[in-house]
């Protein structure tokens, strides 16, 4: 059996990490435009003093230029088509459509850009998969309104979402509302526009912000289905398979709690349309008081759940409460202790292909809704050799091992998997570190961490490999 004939092979990117042109054609500033580049990115934006001030004399801002996809999207999409992409996941920059976020009328130049991008995909029979909001909410909404803890953002997002859905509903079938919505539990600056100075360290604000995002997401589902019943709108979560350090019941309970709180909470609300039973414990442990809700919120969530579950998978984690000698994993942005059975990437993310099969079984078993792996990949330092080539066999090995586990989940476990879009199918700026050096793509882009270089696109060894994977519908992984 293997992969279904209509399986959506492709790749994934985000507007703020590759488009550049951060102040072109009426685009406003986003939160990502105010995030410095470098390994200390999260440390800087997580500090008490960070207030979204852009200081080019002190920091570099690689997102401002990205890989200039804004001016090179036709060239880039042609390369995706050469690989045989069936779909391409990208995001619409909120600030290209509503520069400050609270305007009443959209910026036509922004809408025109995405119309051209979508049409370019369709020219090659590439199905657009659009994320409405991907870590780039308007900076104005973060600074003036305080981010998603403010109920007014529901109205602003709804206007943005309605605008793009109305404009593109005849051309785009697959949508997602918020990228990695559960990431706010670890780094709310990216997904909720909140930093320490605006209340990001208070759990009350984060969960209130999540409620507002849940409402906004359901409003998107409602609008999309009114425009076209065939449209599929998904949630998008960051998933990390979670193990207990050992069979100590205390550690087992810790891994259960971790799964519920991080992997399931947002999906439970968006897929099942209601807050799960363990919300009571979560709120009590964090001293979260009952959330402010408007009349009709819970009914809206129940009536308009998502159609499928999109998720990112890069690593697994290990929960340990009792063993003081357990080693913490270096570089693992989600915490946890070291798994002695796994190797790690150059950035300390533990590599776990079997964990992806476990993830697929856990999600499908819990929800019985179609799944879509919309991010997965290996960040690595690629080197151009003396022949001008990039021999990224390590990336091929990483992806092939994960694809093998996907096939097992489909063929043996009965999981309904829609598609697979490896992250950063063309090199782009890393969200976690703001580096170009942390490369994921099948296509090398000649730019350094300061976005200096020719910008030339060079297919890597993995480019030809992935082309053969798609052509064989996952059968040829050699």
Automatic annotation (TrEMBL):
<dbReference type="InterPro" id="IPR033132">
    <property type="entry name" value="GH_1_N_CS"/>
</dbReference>
<keyword id="KW-0326">Glycosidase</keyword>
<feature type="active site" description="Nucleophile">
    <location>
        <position position="375"/>
    </location>
</feature>
<keyword id="KW-0378">Hydrolase</keyword>
<dbReference type="GO" id="GO:0008422">
    <property type="term" value="F:beta-glucosidase activity"/>
</dbReference>
<dbReference type="Pfam" id="PF00232">
    <property type="entry name" value="Glyco_hydro_1"/>
</dbReference>
<dbReference type="GO" id="GO:0005829">
    <property type="term" value="C:cytosol"/>
</dbReference>
<comment type="similarity">
    <text>Belongs to the glycosyl hydrolase 1 family.</text>
</comment>
<dbReference type="InterPro" id="IPR018120">
    <property type="entry name" value="Glyco_hydro_1_AS"/>
</dbReference>
<dbReference type="InterPro" id="IPR001360">
    <property type="entry name" value="Glyco_hydro_1"/>
</dbReference>
<dbReference type="GO" id="GO:0016052">
    <property type="term" value="P:carbohydrate catabolic process"/>
</dbReference>
<dbReference type="InterPro" id="IPR017853">
    <property type="entry name" value="GH"/>
</dbReference>
<protein>
    <submittedName>
        <fullName>6-phospho-beta-glucosidase</fullName>
    </submittedName>
</protein>
